[in-house]
Amino acid sequence: MNGYEAADTDEAAAFSDSERLASGDARCAGAGPQGTGSDGAGLSSIDLNSDMGESFGRWTLGDDKALLGVVTSANIACGFHAGDPAGILRTVSDAAANHVCIGAHVAYRDLSGFGRRFLDEQPGDLTADVIYQIAALEGIAASVGSGVSYVKPHGALYNRIAVDEQQAHAVVAAIAAVDSSLALLTLPGSVVGRVAADAGLRVFREAFADRAYTPEGRLVPRSQRGAVIHDATEVADRIAKLVATGRIEATDGTMIRVEADSVCVHGDSPGAVGMAKAVRERLESDGVSLRPFARGGRL
C-alpha cells in the first residue's frame, strides 16, 4: 500500500487475508499472566474498557467524565489520531481520581482521518511514533501521580497489526523499549498478540459490547447495516452470556467462541454511558466482579 488506503477501520474490521481472530498511585500493577480465564467462560471477574481523551479543541467527542464512573480501564488517546494536551490531561486526571486503569491508545499519525486510514509506514518510523505516544501519555500521567499500565492500539493500526507481522513487530518493539511491564490489549488470536507474547509481554484479549459479530468471529464492518448495536439491554444480555459461556451470538444466530479478558464499549457510540452502565449492572447482578485486567485499579 502507498500512502492512505480507504478502509473500514473499526477495531476488528475484516481482512481478506486474515485468519479468524476470535475463537497512592493509581497505576494498575501486578497483573497475572495471559488474562483471567483459560477459556473465557464462567469468569468471576472481567474488565470493562472504553476509548477516551478523543476531544480536540472546541470539538467534543464522548462523555469521558461519566464513563470514568463506570469503566475499569480507559484507553486514552495520545494525540496522533485525536486529543489535545489539555484534554488528555483532564481525562488522565479524572481517570486517576476514579482509580481507573490508564492505557495508551496509540495510533497512526492521522488526525484528519481519526486514525482510521491505513498508512504504509516504515517499521522504524512506526516504532518511533509509538514510543513517542506512550512516552507522552506516561509523562502526563506522572504529572498527576499516576501511570500507564497497558497499550491498546487504535483504529487502522489495531486492525493492521492483527494480521501484519512486520508492523506487529514494530509496535511490540516500541512497547518493550519504553517499558516491558506494559500489557497489550488486542484481539484474540491476533498476530500482534503472538508476537508480544513471544517477546515476553503480557497479552490480554478483548470483546466488543456494542458491535455485531460475523459467523467467522470478526466484527461486522460499520458500513454494513446492524454493525453497531444501540440497545443497552441487548448489549448487556450479550455480554452476560459471553462472560458466562465464552460465546456470543453472531449475525446468523449461531453462537461463536470469543475469548475475552476485557469488554469494550466505544466511547463515541451514541448512548455509550447508558450501555456501559447496563453492562456493569447486569454483570454485577450476576455475581461477576468488574476489575481491570491489569490488577490494582478500581474494583
Secondary-structure map with pairings?
Layout: E1 4-5, E2 45-52, H1 64-67, E3 73-77, H2 85-97, E4 101-105, E5 118-119, H3 123-143, E6 150-151, H4 155-161, H5 165-178, E7 183-186, H6 191-198, E8 203-208, H7 232-245, E9 247-249, E10 255-257, E11 262-264, H8 272-285, E12 289-290
Parallel strand pairs: 2-3, 2-11, 2-12, 3-4, 4-6, 6-7, 7-8, 8-11
Antiparallel strand pairs: 1-5, 9-10
Helix pairs in contact: 3-5, 5-6, 7-8
Explain the overall architecture:
By secondary structure, the protein is of the alpha/beta class. The protein has helices at 64-67, 85-97, 123-143, 155-161, 165-178, 191-198, 232-245, 272-285; strands at residues 4-5, 45-52, 73-77, 101-105, 118-119, 150-151, 183-186, 203-208, 247-249, 255-257, 262-264, 289-290. β7 (183-186), α6 and β8 form a beta-alpha-beta unit. The longest helix has 21 residues, at 123-143. The radius of gyration is 17 Å and the shape is globular. The N and C termini lie far apart (44 Å). 54% of the residues are buried.
Q: Kindly report the average pLDDT value.
A: 86
The proportion of residues in beta strands is 15-25%
Residue share in helix: 25-40%
Total number of helical segments? 8
Distance between the termini: 44 Å
Q: What would you report as the Rg, rounded to the nearest angstrom?
A: 17 Å
How does the major sheet shape up? 7 strands, parallel, barrel
Question: What string, H for helix and E for strand, traces the elements in order?
Answer: EEHEHEEHEHHEHEHEEEHE
